[in-house]
Design a protein that fits this description.
Number of domains: 2
Oligomer: single chain
Bound molecules: iron/sulfur cluster
CATH class of the largest domain: Alpha Beta
Distance between the termini: 9 Å
């Protein structure tokens, strides 16, 4: 089972449009490939918007536990307030307040220091429902994706879970490629997404910020010794920036596998909920994406 992970330094680079087109090209124009898909951008999952998924399974994702104080047991000693390094225990209360101390669930980091220190066992750790993950079938193959609830953390853990489920399903069902729509940036979710990848494709934008972001993502993939390629999206909008990316990649021995011109067909395809290679196969963007896909195939 090979893993192709598509990432970018920031959101909005056209990564998901590219993944959706790869899904179409893999399933309809690549006889050797049987691909499954994972949307690892769990903070802003949107691959489902262009792959028309038919949801088959939904599962809860439980994140960290948060402390909760039982007001009937609390004796108001203030120990929890003093041991909390995150100022998550609110108190002491105003006189006459029936609740001695309480925990701000948004500030609580779940370290459980208060839980262990409370002399009367008035504190319990309550697991938080942080989101859901899904298995869907699409016209291009199975898709594993997720939705993190607002203000929830642990997106790296959820990315790992989505990838694990996708890999398990793909291996059991005889697929030979997992294509992952990775999250932007270089944080925990990105590390989870590229972990175990055979090939990472970075989608870069030809701007000063784009080059800076590219540099950061490259540091991440180099650190994990993952074969990394680059493609430049909307390369014709800022040819100088595209040339800078190409010379930067040449200096660092990174292959630029292709570039994609600005093409209004891409946003029209998103509006219709289709990969651009399905919506308008002869458009300039579709043709360039197909060329990139053909160059990737021998490495997968
Ligand atoms: S440590 Fe326990 S008893 Fe003391 S204030 Fe906190 S919850 Fe109440
Ligand atoms: S679990 Fe840790 S962070 Fe949360 S209230 Fe208790 S001491 Fe503070």
């Amino acid at each position: 089972m090979k893993q192709l992970v598509i990432v970018s330094g920031k959101g909005g680079t056209g990564k998901t449009s590219l993944v959706a087109s790869f899904a179409h090209l893999a399933s309809h124009h690549s006889p050797r490939v049987r691909a499954a898909f994972a949307d690892a951008d769990v903070d802003a999952a949107n691959l489902e918007l262009v792959l028309a998924p038919d949801r088959r399974e939904s599962h809860e994702f439980w994140g960290k536990s948060v402390a909760e104080i039982d007001p009937h047991r609390c004796e108001g000693c203030g120990i929890c307030h003093n041991v909390c390094r995150f100022d998550a225990v609110l108190g002491p209360p105003a006189q006459g307040d029936s609740i001695f101390y309480r925990v701000d669930p948004l500030a609580c980091e779940g370290c459980a220091a208060c839980f262990y220190q409370c002399p009367v066992q008035a504190i319990r750790m309550v697991p938080q429902l942080a989101g859901q993950w899904f298995y869907s079938e699409t016209p291009y193959g199975p898709l594993f994706h997720a939705a993190l609830r607002p203000a929830q953390e642990n997106s790296g853990k959820l990315v790992s879970l989505v990838k694990q489920q996708a890999l398990r399903h793909a291996e059991n069902a005889g697929y030979n490629l997992l294509i992952v729509d990775g999250p932007p940036g270089i944080g925990c979710p990105a590390i989870s997404a590229v972990s175990g990848a055979d090939l990472v494709l970075i989608v870069a934008e030809p701007s000063v910020a784009g080059i800076h972001d590219l540099h950061l993502v490259l540091e991440l993939t180099m650190h994990f010794h993952i074969l990394t390629l680059v493609c430049i999206n909307k390369a014709d909008i800022h040819p100088q920036g595209a040339a800078q990316i190409e010379s930067f990649c040449a200096e660092h021995d990174i292959k630029v596998v292709g570039s994609i011109p600005f093409d209004p067909s891409v946003s029209e395809a998103i509006t219709r909920g289709l990969p651009v290679t399905v919506f308008r196969p002869s458009s300039p963007a579709s043709q360039h994406i197909e060329r990139i896909w053909q160059r990737l195939l021998p490495m997968l």
